[in-house]
Amino acid sequence: MKSTEDGGADGAETLGIGAFAARFGLATHVLRHWEAMGLLHPARDAAGRRRYGAEDLTRVATILVMKEAGLGLDTIRSLSATTGRATRHAILRPAADELKARIAAAQASLELIEGGLNCEHEDVTRCPGYRRLIAEQTGSVVRQQSR
């Protein structure tokens, strides 16, 4: 990792917090927050300033990928603290179930929208597909209310 800043004590190239944050398009307070949460552990120079190296580069990239996948910082922290398969599965299973539910909801939304696009009626509420979806929804509401 090239840097215009000073190298670390061991000669490895490091970056200060500003340059490191800019590399990822992040604000420096994000890195500080992740450090406070225990997600990052940057080295410090003699003056106490944070110095980020190659390991930190990989760590931040991992955090960003996991966040993109929909995982929260607490979940990411828990995952980083475990090496056991069973524990990892216990952490990830609820996230996978939640994602599957969101995908199903998005699929239903897409079905409704595409039904509206493909409907030949002037009034979309007269389309058989629309009526079926509404019947399913009102049926589920009626079933929930009667519980």
Features:
single chain, 147 residues, mainly alpha, 6 helices, elongated
The dominant shape is elongated
Count of DSSP H/I helices: 6
User: Span from first to last CA?
Assistant: 61 Å
Oligomer: single chain
Explain what this protein looks like in three dimensions.
By secondary structure, the chain is mainly alpha-helical. It contains 6 helices and 2 strands. It has helices at residues 17-24, 28-36, 54-68, 73-80, 85-118, 128-145; strands at residues 43-44, 50-51. It has a two-stranded antiparallel ribbon with strand order 1-2. The longest helix is centred in the last third of the chain and has 34 residues, at 85-118. It is elongated. 10% of the residues are buried. The model has no long low-confidence stretch (mean pLDDT 87).
Give a summary of the structure in a few sentences.
Helices cover 63% and strands 3% of the residues.
List the helices and strands and how they pair.
Layout: H1 17-24, H2 28-36, E1 43-44, E2 50-51, H3 54-68, H4 73-80, H5 85-118, H6 128-145
Antiparallel strand pairs: 1-2
